[in-house]
Design brief:
By secondary structure, this protein is of the alpha+beta class. Helix content is 22%, strand content 40%.
């Protein structure tokens, strides 16, 4: 199981069965405006904040599910969209 999470705000955005589905969601988030849902940060000072999306892999066979890996993927802010280089290489 893979989830897309905003590390800065400790929010789980969505959960997916495959890594490819998580990457597709990140691409959708990258195309969305930074100042509207789902990229709009929940902070009071949202104009100066950002989203720091990660893909987190969980072992859903374990009870409770155990985190296997956490990969920083994408930052979205008023400055634009930045893909983490290591993630971009793994996602292709």
């Amino acid at each position: 199981m893979f989830s897309v999470e905003d590390e800065l705000h400790s929010e789980r955005h969505a959960t997916f069965a495959t890594f490819a589905e998580a990457v597709a969601e990140l691409q959708r988030l990258a195309a969305a405006p930074w100042n509207s849902v789902p990229n709009l940060p929940p902070c009071e000072n949202w104009q100066n904040c950002s989203r720091a999306y990660e893909v987190v892999e969980y072992n859903s066979e374990a009870s409770p599910s155990a985190e296997v890996a956490r990969r920083p993927a994408l930052n979205v802010s008023s400055a634009g969209v930045t893909w983490h280089e290591a993630f971009a290489r793994r996602a292709t």
